[in-house]
Amino acid sequence: MQLTFIMFRRNYDGTSIRARSIKQSSLSERIWDAIIAAGAFYALWLLIHFIHTEVGWGEAGHVFVLGLFTLSRVVILIIIAALIWIPVGVWVGMRPNLSSRVQALAQFMAAFPANLMFPGAVVLIVHFKLNPDIWLSPLMILGTQWYLLFNVIAGASTIPTELRYVSQNLGLSGWLKWRRYLLPAIFPSFVTGAITATGGSWNASIVAEYVTWGHTTLHAHGIGSYIAEMTAIGDFPRIALGIGIMCVFVMGFNHFIWRRLYRMAENRLHF
Amino acid sequence: MSKPIVELKSVDKSFHSTDGTARLVLQDVDFTLNEGEIVALLGQSGSGKSTMLRIMAGLIPADKGQVLYQGMPIYGAARGISMVFQSFALFPWLTVQKNVELGLEAQGVSMKERVKRAQAAIEMIGLIGFEGALPRELSGGMRQRVGIARALVMEPEVLLMDEAFSALDVLTGERLREDILELWNNNEIPTKAILIVSHNIEEAVMMADRVLIFASDPGRVCAELPITIRHPRVVESQEVRALIDNVYGLMTSGTSRLGRLAEVESKLQLGDRLPEADIARMEGMLELLAEEPFNGRADLPKLAEDTELTDKELIDVSRALTILGFVQLPQGDVVITELGIAYVASTKAERQQIFGKQLLANVPMIAYIRHGLEQDPSGDLPEDLFLKLLRFTLNQAEAERALSVAIEWGRYGDVFEYNFNTGVIHMPKEDQATVDDIV
């Protein structure tokens, strides 16, 4: 133990030439870049080659359409969850002695494995003969909606006291109060929560769009159920295709939607 | 002329901390704000002045007593009462124009009318050209102008200013103050009464027709001083200086004599908050006082100028020095004591010894901690123990502040040591014997 510490000890200080900063040789960096680029191109070529010979472009297009199904589910669910949890989160966040307790509850709910609820959903859907394309969807957000809730609570509880008094003093109420004061105030933390929740929902789609309980298997059309099905069969190339396209969706969504919203929040909407 | 506009009648207010203990912040407060006057409310921080202001604005309800506006009880924020805040409290995502318009928007004033009135307010307060700016682009002074414009655009009958100039530098604060006074004196605003909460004595004396001094724990009005000097007032004039002196006197003695009439020269109690004075500042002031030109006696306002301390800092430092017996405070003056002179003449090590000795003799909290440590065989105790004790009389933040002051002083006087990482207070390590000598 003592020895290892001695081994890391430095016997010179800043006056020694040995302390000068050593420039990274640009050659080694270039080589590293080249290796990474080569790897990326190889992977891309493999993918194209694989799609061309094994599955055909038709199936890739089909998986992309399935991705769009799942995308619309994610978007709609986030909107519904936002409509529910933003008012609740703001209400709780403004009450300090309540918010710590609700935070704890939300964290517990987020940690609770949502798949335990799935069999119940299957039983209900089968019993009432519901359309699984619609009614399996809510399962995707069951576990991830709590990120929205506790980020909104955190956001609302950091609103400065004097700002609350101003809104009271100016007599803000109703929709005006939400538009001019509450929504902008919680927007940055809402975006943080929504990024986590959507990312999680994409993942959850793999288990939520393809649910088995006993002898009953329900599945909804979507990229999640595609991946789950291929996993059940053990078709490794198609699993890779599904996951690859899902990654494209998630990253595209992050890049074009969330990054922009996040930058807007950073620039304009903070105290 | 003296028609009451806002009245508080025997108002009580307590706050509940998260652990459920209640703390009385205002007790039996009677106050009347009359038409045509500017009233300034002075007091130490934490004395409940801001709470009183918020109750008057209808932002928080009183626990007991009556709050009347125009003779009618109020149950929530009243339209005729506007407030200006210390932190400016602008909406950071709205432009200056939108910030100013917001109150009118909430009242449902039409867009055209809104823009017109907001423009007028912006012009009046000197913000032309900044309509499209976001608050974060503006300096503190300009931000507070927006805050004032936002209050004035509502054409309030009562204007409440909660430490409105405290976050600004001296020059900017003075400028804004004069602007407000000018609007008021020339009747350019429909406002009928202004109440200012402040801890700047000069500000209060320069603006107000009446100065009220607030005592703390629980907060109540302990002294009232009418000011009849005509505007514009000149800071350097005899009468203004005399008044400032007078207020300093009331403020420094006010904490003990006026505040608690029953007690004789109130000694510090175990659970009292300690003045927030750091040691370097205390020693600096003591040295300054001992030297030319003061030669041991100084006028508090004069000292405030020379040291460039704010009134709050100065009062805290002089209170701390009084507690330790280094100075006395007769009527707005500071007079160094024999002990203070001896202290200044001592070496560093001797100073620390004297300091420690005075702490044990005069600060019950520190003596209590020391006693506890001596009784304990291991010679160390967790700070939580003392925090809990302080929580009987103070709220969490105040208790923490009081303990941190006690720890800073105790460390300097070598009465005890404190390990921040473990949160344990313990006896000074090597020199048990020498400490016993001091005691």
Give the topology, please.
The complex is a heterodimer of chains A (271) and B (439).
Chain A: H1 2-8, H2 26-93, H3 96-111, H4 118-127, H5 132-135, H6 138-142, H7 145-157, H8 161-169, H9 174-208, E1 210-213, E2 216-219, H10 223-233, H11 236-268
Antiparallel strand pairs in A: 1-2
Helix pairs in contact in A: 2-7, 2-9, 2-11, 3-7, 7-9, 9-10, 9-11, 10-11
Chain B: E1 4-16, E2 22-34, E3 37-43, H1 49-56, E4 64-69, E5 72-73, E6 81-84, H2 96-106, H3 111-124, H4 140-152, E7 158-162, H5 170-185, E8 193-198, H6 201-207, E9 210-215, E10 220-226, H7 238-258, H8 279-290, E11 297-299, H9 300-307, H10 311-323, E12 327-328, E13 333-336, H11 338-345, H12 348-362, H13 364-375, E14 380-382, H14 383-390, H15 396-412, E15 417-419, E16 424-426, H16 432-438
Parallel strand pairs in B: 3-8, 3-9, 6-7, 7-8
Antiparallel strand pairs in B: 1-2, 1-4, 4-5, 9-10, 11-13, 12-13, 14-16, 15-16
Structure description:
The complex is a heterodimer of chains A (271) and B (439). Chain A is built from 11 helices and 2 strands; from the N terminus they run αααααααααββαα. Chain A is mainly α and 271 residues long. Chain A has 2 domains: 1-55; 56-268, Orthogonal Bundle (MetI-like fold), CATH 1.10.3720.10. With 439 residues, chain B is an alpha/beta fold. Chain B is built from 16 helices and 16 strands. Chain B has helices spanning 49-56, 96-106, 111-124, 140-152, 170-185, 201-207, 238-258, 279-290, 300-307, 311-323, 338-345, 348-362, 364-375, 383-390, 396-412, 432-438, and strands at 4-16, 22-34, 37-43, 64-69, 72-73, 81-84, 158-162, 193-198, 210-215, 220-226, 297-299, 327-328, 333-336, 380-382, 417-419, 424-426. Chain B has a 6-stranded mixed β-sheet with strand order 6-7-8-3-9-10, sandwiched between helices. A 4-stranded antiparallel β-sheet of chain B has the order 2-1-4-5, with helices on one face. Chain B has a 3-stranded antiparallel β-sheet with strand order 11-13-12. In chain B, helix 2 runs parallel beside helix 4, helix 6 packs across helix 7 (238-258) and helix 12 (348-362) packs across helix 13. The longest helix of chain B has 21 residues, at 238-258. Chain B starts with a strand and ends with a helix. Mean pLDDT of chain B is 86; it is low at 254-265 and 433-439. The chains are: A mainly alpha (271), B alpha/beta (439). At the A-B interface, helix 8 and helix 9 of A face strand 6 and helix 2 of B.
